[in-house]
DNA sequence: CCGTATGATTTCCT
DNA sequence: AGGAAATCATACGG
């Protein structure tokens, strides 16, 4: 501030201005450079300095007088210029920083996860990508899948409403400060550039809030995602009916338990599971059966009976279309010696 | 709580 | 790419 006061006091010795067009800052500068006396400015400054020593009423009156003074705009423009050259220019250098890399990172992630960006499409695409990354087929539409999407939509909604609130608050505050500064610029020298800078400062402060919002949204998505992936990894036993269908196929194709793609699809549909789950099941079953045939003997016999009974029922129904027999009613009638013992495996 | 069953994943092979 | 084998991680029953 020392420089500024020195510059200001330096002005006092320049003498008064007689030209009427003092509203133009350029003319002021011209006159200064020409070394013309500017007594008026000196007077005004004296008066300003003296204001603090005066009573409130006097000060108010003088302030008003100063406000109306024909020299005021010129003086303010000079003061603003000085301010620009001193304090503000020092700060101004590091102000023009590029967009925060962390915010950019968060933005990219939110976009990739489908939280920000276009509406529905992004979300489902991200979910599909997550599913694909987890090894599932993208065509699988499981319950977890829709669950994930629903949760993501929820996060999305919260994020957008919060962001909207934030933007509203930010612009409200900015407007408020801008109005305040504009108001104040009548009584103290404030350049438009300074207001601009203040707005930038406010925005920077608000962007840290925005970052917090984005960060916590990202965290929420990550948690949801890990839970989603965990859910896929978490094992849920297939229901009885599904294992029954799979076992039936396995033991009735024991000589070649390798269902074709079509057969897998059919089984998947019947069991309410995915094709890859069918593949997993057959992979597991084959290896475990082969490892310990003895352990599966009982099960094998059971399903051999089952298929035999079913076959019998089918043929019975075919020959007697109006037979009242239920599919399982024949089990008790099967004689033990009819149980087909297992064929060996050749695979 | 422990042992076994079982669905999923990983690694290697063809 | 699809399968075998090993392994992981959880479910489930006693």
From TrEMBL:
The keyword Nucleus applies. One of its GO terms (molecular function) is sequence-specific DNA binding. GO terms for cellular component: nucleus; transcription regulator complex. The lineage of its organism: Eukaryota, Metazoa, Chordata, Craniata, Vertebrata. Keywords: Activator, Developmental protein, Differentiation, DNA-binding, Homeobox, Nucleus, Transcription, Transcription regulation. This is Pre-B-cell leukemia transcription factor 1. Residues 30-39 have a biased composition (Polar residues). It is found in: Nucleus. It comes from Poecilia reticulata. Residues 1-39 are annotated as: Disordered. The keyword Protein transport does not apply. It holds the Pfam family Homeobox_KN. One of its GO terms (biological process) is heart morphogenesis.
